[in-house]
Amino acid sequence: MSTATARAYPNIALVKYWGKRDEQQMLPAAGSMSMTLDAFPTTTTVRLLDEPAAGSSSSDHGDVFVLNGDPDTGSAARRTSLFLDHVRDLAGSDRPARVDSHNEAPTGAGLASSAAGFAALALAASRAYGLDLDPRELSRLARRGSGSATRSIMPGYALWHAGTDDATSFAEPVLPDGARMPELRLVIVTVDGRPKAVSSREAMRLTAATSPFYDAWIDATAQALDEMVAACAREDVEAIGRITESHALRMHAVIASTTPPVRYLAPASIAVFDEAAALRRRGMVAWATADAGPNVCVLTTPADAEQVAAAVAGHGQVRIVGPGPGATVVDPTEQTQQEDA
Ligand code: DP6
Asked: Ligand 1: which of 27, 198, 200, 206 to mutate, judged by most atoms within 8 Å of the beta carbon?
């Protein structure tokens, strides 16, 4: 096969990945855990070319990258080509490719996701180059593009094992087959949709290099992950929420302790954390978390989701999401329909 289309969804980490032990191999300093969402997918088609694309250069390895219908020649295109190099190495191919990617996150919602993007690219590219990878191998491949993409290969709740080398750093379902996770929802509150000033990759590097608290953060993450897996296994929503919120605040604390300092949370973000605490005092399930940006997700139950959404609506655009599918191969005509739409 020389053309394949795949779709993947973003994920929100409940135990965060923030720090690498090996940037070249994209090995994290600690494990993490997330919910793959049922909204905002990225759909990507990879088509192998017989010769370098017209207008491509040696820096893009003859590849061409088209994002939401617009050719891209910037850093996203370079990252895509570097990623395709891993796939070409695995497949023993040197053919360039055209990559068409569509991201369904609304522009300006602050949800554009490298996790969904590289998970979809890993699956589509591996198929286009003739590889037949199992989910574990796919998650290892997606990791090369972006750490968080490792988890978006998996449906529902994914645990990314830190591992010690390429073979052992992969994601899999948090609980074994047949075990039940409690029903959870996330209320996404988009307080500011602008692109962040400092990328996760850069701020992560800075944290490891300059924070006096970095080692403690990594130790605390490993411990939070153990506690989280145990809380999931006993379907303890309260503990899942508590670990989620306190772990997120610890991540923002370690980020704020870098030199020069980086701060992602805005006053409106803090207001949503306060709102979650107020909802808890009223007996509801509401625990806040935020990634490397000002937007906040409130973890809740299906029963409380509408009320939580109504309570935080004053702070930004809200959307209730739940656990979604892993990366899947899709019919390429679906992408054509989107392009035509
Ligand atoms: C705060 O996966 O975007 O969302 O591996 O350098 O591409 P790179 O970083 P990325 O970082 C995600 C950071 C986070 C936490 C998380 O998703 O676990």
From this structure: 200
Q: Is the pLDDT of residue 340 over 50?
A: no
Burial group, residue 273, by CB count within 10 angstroms (0-12, 13-18, 19+): buried
Please tell me whether the overall predicted TM-score, pTM, comes out greater than 0.70 for this model. Answer: yes
- Neighbour tally for 93: CB within 10 Å: 17
Quick check: CB of 291 below 6 Å from ligand 1? yes
Residue 230's φ and ψ, nearest 5 degrees, are -65, -40
SS3 216: helix
With contact defined as beta carbons under 8 Å apart, do 311 and 274 qualify?
no
79 CB near ligand 1 (under 6 Å): no
The per-residue pLDDT for range 182-214, each reduced to its tens digit, is 999 999 999 988 878 899 999 999 999 999 999
CA–centroid distance, 107 to ligand 1, in Å, is: 20
66-80 tens-digit pLDDT: 999 999 888 889 999
Query: Nearest Cα to 154, choosing from 137, 135, 131, 126?
Result: 135
Of ligand 1's atoms, which has the minimum distance to the CA of residue 201? 6
- Ligand 1: which atom is nearest the Cα of residue 251? 1
For residue 55, give the amino acid letter. G
